[in-house]
Write the structure tokens for this entry.
Amino acid sequence: MSIITLLTDFGPDDTYVASLKGVILGINPQATLVDITHTVPPQDVLAGAYLLGCAYRDFPPGTVHLAVVDPGVGSSRRAIACRAGGHTFVGPDNGLLSYVLDDCGAITPLAGSQTHPHPNPLPSRERGVGRGLSKGHVSPVGPQPHRGRAGVPSPLEGEGKDEGVRRSPDGLVALALPRGVRAVELTAERFWRQPVSPTFHGRDIFAPVAAHLSPSAGSGQALGVPLARMGRRLSELLAFPIPRPQSQPDGSVLGEVIHVDRFGNLITNLRHEDLPPRGLPVFTLTLPSPRGRGLQKAPSPAGRGPGVRAATIRGLARSYADAPADLLAIVGSSGRIEIALRNGSAASRLGVGMGTVVGVVSESNHTFPQRNQARRIKSLPH
């Protein structure tokens, strides 16, 4: 069986997705096409990277994943194909494979490498203020080292680490590919659709390449083309540093919201193993200023201190239905901890989004703020 998945920001209203499928089926009529999503927010490469990283693992080895969130189409950004973890990925080299590469251990910048500006960078209004994507993102925890788009230092960032690597405002870095991961720049034009439109590489380059890379029985064409025939081999790809939970001197762990799903669930980079080994976990989210002037500065990583508004949740709920009709913390299907609101949107209730700081500490080490300093949320069972 030949499976090709599609992930784009094209939306359901135009003919762009149908054009991709038509090109693929014209080359490999035996292909099984699966839509991961076509509702990635327009030009939001980081959101597309997260969704691709969540979905690809659920497909069998040998699947070809066509991913197109490409604000730099027609520019000097590279078109690539990459084979990693038994899967093949086709799309632009703009950070869209960040979570895939992270799964494969590609976390070390090349010595002396430089970051690359994102082609056609978008103004902050279009990127989504409050999503941690704009150049002017304000950290909610006071002055910090330079941060990537997600707002929390990753192992690639911070004082004393890789100081020779310059980063673009979008945080892209060149990552050395680990053993077992192969990538090529798509330069073999005989596998493209002609003529190539400078505004639709998804149809004219990525879709035909994905089809040629996919195996097929009885198609009459020699498909399953080796990756090496698609172009010159690459030793590095561009990626956004993936934010890691950070242990703090006071015993807390500092994470952040890395995705907001359509239900308004705040998906964090915290996992169960990041929680305190003993005691009831207490989660604290730093909330926006009531005057709408950005996020308050918190002198403590757990969101405590004078003048700080915070939402506090005690314990983990087992399921959405088992929790009271209020905010809850739960381990979601991705294995990450989510802040949710039963039958509602936690993002709307709290007025927060990507990049929001989420602290967790054992209840025995947590000092609840005074009523005028924080917003206490109803206790939940562990």
Remarks:
- Residues 307 and 373 are 6 Å apart (CA to CA).
